[in-house]
Every structure is written in C-alpha cells, then in structure tokens.
Amino acid sequence: MKQLVLLAFLLAGCASSPPLQLAKSVDLDRYYGKWYIIAEIPYFGERGNVGGIAEYAPLPNGQIDDKYFGRAGSFDGKIQSNDLEDYVVPGTNNALWRVKLFWPIYVSYPILDVAPDYSYSLVGYPDRSLGWIFSRTPEMDDATYQSLLAKFAAQGYDTSQFRRVPQTPEQIGKPGFS
C-alpha cells in the first residue's frame, strides 16, 4: 500500500504551479488528534473509502505520527490504514510538513488554513492535484463546506474535483459524496 501512496504523490508532484499560501501559524498541540476527512481530491489509495480519519500525535523523536484509517466502499468494509512519519519544515510556523513515505522519499503536506478554534483544517499539495478538508466532527454543514471550497478556489484549485467522504452510512450515494 505504501508503494501505491508513493506513486500517487510522485505523479501528482510532476507539474509546476505557483506556491500555495500556507496558514500563518499552526499550534501543533491544538492540531494533534483526530480529524475526520470531510472531503478530498481523491487519489487511488483513498478513492472509494468511507469513514476516512487522519490522526496526528507527537513522537518522542520530535517528529509526528501520521495515521490514516478508512473503510473500503462501505462501513462494513475492511479497514485500510497507513502509518507514516512526518516532520515540520523549519521556518514555516508549523504550516509545512514533510511526510516520509519510506526513506528517502518525502512529500509535502502544506496546511493552508486552520480555523481559529481548530474545528477545521485545509491541507493541500503543491501542484493542487490533492486536497483535504478536515473537521473535528464527522459532519459539516453545507454553508461551511462551501466556504472552505471557496478558500481552495482562491488558492487556484479546481474545486469540482473535491468529493465529500461519507462519514455516516446515510451519506453514501448522496449527491457530491464519493
């Protein structure tokens, strides 16, 4: 699975785009914890998964434990997971991380925006081929969701590529959900 993740990130990073604008500052202690994946521009490692969750925690070596969990196709599906290790790029106010897929391969994890109360986060990718909307709760109202898509659009994203990730069985098959 890690090799598939690597391939997706490497292929996504081949194009050149203007730099993304990072969040001004990220308080790691507030950022750590569980994030529900509300929407994403899916890559094949996450495509079709439901109940997607990302969890971050500090590691004793100063790096960040980065875990992904999702279920293949339905809430009865097999849990898929990835366990990665990240580090913060110095001088970025904790808004740019590098994710180690496996040594020596690292990919960028730019945090574009975080709510003042850390209720949501926007994560991008340098060429805008990947993006995620995270929330501390499994559901998000449509007005908030649309306002976050507008933030991605302001960064040059094609927001029609985003798909909502079902976080409850009732969301499967609804318009806009993957």
How much of the sequence lies in strands comes to 35-45%
Q: Strands across the major sheet, in which order?
A: 1-2-3-4-5-6-7-8
Overall mean pLDDT score?
90
Task: Please state the overall shape, judged from the principal axes of the Cα atoms.
Answer: globular
Distance between the termini: 21 Å
Instruction: Quickly give the CATH architecture.
Output: Beta Barrel
For CATH, the homologous superfamily is named as Calycin beta-barrel core domain
Domains (count): 1
**Tally of extended strands?**
9
| Sheet/helix structural class | alpha+beta
Assign a percent range to the helix content.
10-25%
Q: What's the helix-strand series?
A: HHEEEEEEEEHE
In the CATH scheme, what's the topology name?
Answer: Lipocalin
CATH class: Mainly Beta
Uncertain ranges: 1-14
Report the major sheet: 8 strands, antiparallel, barrel
Radius of gyration: 15 Å
State the helix count. Answer: 3
Describe this structure in words.
There is one protein chain. By secondary structure, the chain is an alpha+beta fold. The protein has a single domain, classed as Beta Barrel (Lipocalin), CATH 2.40.128. The chain contains three helices and nine strands. It has helices at 2-12, 28-31, 142-154; strands spanning 33-41, 49-58, 64-72, 79-88, 96-102, 105-114, 120-123, 131-135, 163-164. Strand 7 (120-123) and strand 8 (131-135) form a beta hairpin. It is globular.
List the helices and strands and how they pair.
Elements: H1 2-12, H2 28-31, E1 33-41, E2 49-58, E3 64-72, E4 79-88, E5 96-102, E6 105-114, E7 120-123, E8 131-135, H3 142-154, E9 163-164
Antiparallel strand pairs: 1-2, 1-8, 1-9, 2-3, 3-4, 4-5, 5-6, 6-7, 7-8
